[in-house]
Amino acid sequence: MSAQANFTEKKYLTVLLFVTSLFFCWGVALTLGDVLNRHFQHVLHISKSRSGLVQLSLFGAYAVMGIPAGAFMKRFGYKKGILLGLGLYALGAFLFIPAAEAASFNFFRFALFILACGLATLETVAHPLIAALGDQRTSDQRINFSQSFNGLGGVIGPAIGSYCILKAGQEHSGDLLAVRDLYMVIGFVIALLGLAFLFIKIPSLHTAHAVSDGGGGNIKQLLRRKHFVFAAVAQFFNVAAQGGTWAYFINYGHDVMELSDEKSGYFFSLSMVMLMAGRFAGTALMRFIAPYKLLAVFAGMNILMCIIVAQQLGWISFIALIMINFFFSIMFPTIFSLGLKDLGRHTQQASSFIVMGVVGGGIFPPLMGLIANHSVAEAYYLPIVCYLVILLFGYSYPRLAKF
C-alpha cells in the first residue's frame, strides 16, 4: 500500500456518489419526523410524551430490520439490499395517503415504521458498502463524507416541513392534507431513484475492514471483539441523544424562546447546517487527529452544550442547542466505522448489530417527553448520560481495539 491512502478509486466513483445520495434521502426522512412530531401535537391533540412515539416508530424499525437486512445483504448482495430499502421507503411514504384520510396517529406510526424499515435496510447496506469503496485507512473519511450529505438532507427536511406543514396561515396548516401531499411526492421520488439504481453496476469488492478474520463465523466470535461491542452500545446512546435532541427542538423554540412553530422549524434547519458543517470539518480534521480522539472531544463539548441549554439563558442557550448538532456531527459515522474495523468476514453481520443500536432514538424521546411535559429545557439534562458513554468509548478505543 502507498504511504498516503487515496480517498477512493476512479472505478468506484459512480457507486460512491449514488450511495452518498441515499444518505441525503434518509436525512430528509428522519428530520421530517421531528416536524411531524410537533404537527401531530397540534392537529391530533396529543401530548409531548405521546408525540415522542413518532421517533419510536422511526427508530424502532431499526431494531426490527437490522438483522434481517444484514442477512438479506449477505444472501443477495449490496445492490438488491439497496433496492429493498428504497422499495420499503417508497411504500411507507405512499401509506401516508390513507393515514391522512383516516386522521389516525397509529396509522401514521405504521406508515413511518414501514418507511423506517427501508431506512434501516439502506443504512445496513450503505455503511459497509461505502467502507469497501477504497482503502481501509480512509474508510472513516469516506463514511464521514457520505454522512455529510445526510446532514444536507437534514437541512432540507425541516426546511421543507416547516414551509409545507408548519407555516401559519396557509390553507392546510391545521390539517393533514399537506402531510399527505408531501409524502406522496417523496414516495414518487424514491421510486424513481430505485428505478435508476437498476442500471448501476457495482464492481467486485473486497471488505474494507478485512485485515483479520477474527476466527470463526458465529456470533460468539464477533461478541469477543470488544471494540465492536462497545461501538454497538455507544451507537445506541448516540442515536438516543440525537432522537431526543431533535424531537423537542421545535418545542424548545416555541416554549422557551417564544418563537412560532414555523420559525422554530427554520432554526432546526439551521442546526442541521451546523451538523453538515461539522461533518465536513470532521472529515478534514481526521487527516490530522485520530478519529477516536476527535469523537471523545466532541462528546465532551456536547455535555457542556446540554448543560447550557438546560439553564434557559435565552439566546445563549438556544445557540448552544443549535451547536449540539455541530459536535454531534461525526458521532454516528465515526462510531460505525470504528466498530467495523478489522472484523474480516464478520463485517456485514456487525453492521446489522450496530444499525440495531439506532433503536435508542426511539426509546429516548418518550422518556425526554415525560420531562418535557413539565419543562422542555430540563429535559436536555438527559442526553448528558448518552454523551458520557460516547466519551468513554472514544477514550477507551485504543485499548478496546487490541482485543
UniProtKB/TrEMBL annotation:
Source lineage: Bacteria, Pseudomonadati, Bacteroidota, Chitinophagia, Chitinophagales
One cellular component (GO) term of this entry: plasma membrane
Localisation: Cell inner membrane
InterPro entries per record: Lfuc_symporter_FucP (IPR005275), MFS (IPR011701), MFS_trans_sf (IPR036259), MFS_TsgA-like (IPR050375)
Pfam families per the UniProt record, alphabetical: MFS_1 (PF07690)
Domain of life, per lineage: Bacteria
Annotated TM spans: 12-32, 52-72, 81-100, 106-130, 151-170, 182-200, 228-249, 264-282, 294-313, 319-340, 352-373, 379-397
Keyword Membrane recorded: yes
Name used for this protein in its record: MFS transporter, FHS family, L-fucose permease
Keywords: Cell membrane, Membrane, Transmembrane, Transmembrane helix
Mode of membrane association: Multi-pass membrane protein
Entry GO MF terms: fucose:proton symporter activity
